[in-house]
């Protein structure tokens, strides 16, 4: 029996292996493209679909008053959302924003009611936010404390102080001058609504075009590498905490101005709603990702969802359950994406 040598092209497996690798690479590229597309624009699509569903199923949802109310509410919380998103881009989380929001707003209203100039009360409220943010930032950066654990402690401390101030007000109305802040109008709409669109556009441009702003993403992706390349990582992280606290305070002042009287529940659980919005909008708990516009749209989506559920007669306790389930789902998805990327 003679052995016949087959031609090389019939025995060589290399072309088939190269083809398999090429197919795998293309599949990976397609998966990455779809994931990036979902992170960038998925929340906009989901929000539009939700809007259409509620508009068709509940006529009251589409009323001008209801739509305007949704945008007005988001425009007041915009600044807290912005500060939180900038922080999460760097891989840090501030769970005290809701308490700072409440303490700053309530204190500003209290001082105005006690005869101090409105501007002074607003200034003190915002300074409180900056101070709490600075304390959080210094402790996280200098003592290497996990930001989630630290800000849970801050949340409880500041919330207690806020409750004391609210109790001192004892249901008294805020001063007229203070209540006029969020009610002032520009071209027949509350000034905070057009300001929201302008702020989001400016911040999106800055974050996408400015080299200095891109440092936030570099630090969020790899803090050690950013430090090696000469970036002032510690100062930037502290600054982000300070900004987050100050912006939360600004939103708190605006909301307090709107609600007329002190409310002990003001800002309660706000931090979890903003966290959910940021992650739904494509930000990562591990840092390096996030867009202001997506966080704002996601916050609008959550507000729209709660608004629609109310129209369907869903009890408030179940509304919290739904938002909680969404938070768990997006955190699980973000963790899985991070594992696959890493």
Q: Which terms would index this structure?
A:
342 residues; mainly alpha; ABC transporter involved in vitamin B12 uptake, BtuC; two-stranded antiparallel ribbon; 14 helices; 2 strands; 77% helix; 1% strand; globular; disordered N terminus
Topology:
Layout (H helix, E strand, L loop, with lengths): L7 H4 L2 H44 L6 H26 L7 H17 L4 H25 L4 H23 L6 H4 L5 E2 L2 E2 L1 H18 L1 H11 L1 H6 L4 H27 L10 H11 L11 H20 L4 H26 L1
Antiparallel strand pairs: 1-2
What does this protein structure show overall?
With 342 residues, the protein is mainly alpha-helical. It has one domain: ABC transporter involved in vitamin B12 uptake, BtuC (Orthogonal Bundle), CATH 1.10.3470. The chain is built from 14 helices and two strands. Strands 1-2 form a two-stranded antiparallel ribbon. The longest helix has 44 residues, at 14-57. The model is unreliable at 1-11, 13-19 and 24-28 (pLDDT under 50).
């Amino acid at each position: 029996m003679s052995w016949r040598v087959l031609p090389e092209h019939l025995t060589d497996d290399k072309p088939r292996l190269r083809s398999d690798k090429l197919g795998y690479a293309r599949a990976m590229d397609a998966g990455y493209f779809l994931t990036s597309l979902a992170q960038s624009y998925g929340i906009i699509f989901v929000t539009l679909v939700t809007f259409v569903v509620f508009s068709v199923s509940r006529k009251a949802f589409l009323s001008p008053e209801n739509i305007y109310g949704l945008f007005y509410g988001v425009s007041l919380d915009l600044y807290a959302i912005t500060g939180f998103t900038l922080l999460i881009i760097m891989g840090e989380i501030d769970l005290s924003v809701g308490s700072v929001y409440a303490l700053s707003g309530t204190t500003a209203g209290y001082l105005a009611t006690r005869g101090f100039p409105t501007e002074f009360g607003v200034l003190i409220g915002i300074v409180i936010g900056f101070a709490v943010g600075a304390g959080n930032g210094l402790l996280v950066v200098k003592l290497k404390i996990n930001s989630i654990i630290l800000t849970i402690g801050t949340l409880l401390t500041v919330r207690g102080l806020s409750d004391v101030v609210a109790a001192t007000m004892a249901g008294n109305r805020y001063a007229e001058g203070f209540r006029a802040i969020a009610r002032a109008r520009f071209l027949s709409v509350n000034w905070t609504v057009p300001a929201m669109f302008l702020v989001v556009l400016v911040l999106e441009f800055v974050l996408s075009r400015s080299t200095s702003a891109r440092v936030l993403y570099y630090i969020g992706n790899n803090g050690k590498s950013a430090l090696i390349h000469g970036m002032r990582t510690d100062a930037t992280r502290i600054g982000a905490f300070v900004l987050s606290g100050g912006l939360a305070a600004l939103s708190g002042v605006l909301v307090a101005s709107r609600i007329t009287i002190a409310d002990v529940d003001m800002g309660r659980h706000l931090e979890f709603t903003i966290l959910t919005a940021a992650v739904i909008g494509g930000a990562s708990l591990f840092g390096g990702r996030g867009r202001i516009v997506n966080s704002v749209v996601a916050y609008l989506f959550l507000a729209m969802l709660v608004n629609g559920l109310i129209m369907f007669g869903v009890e408030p306790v179940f509304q919290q359950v739904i938002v909680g389930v969404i938070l768990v789902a997006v955190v699980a998805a973000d963790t899985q994406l991070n594992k696959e990327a890493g």
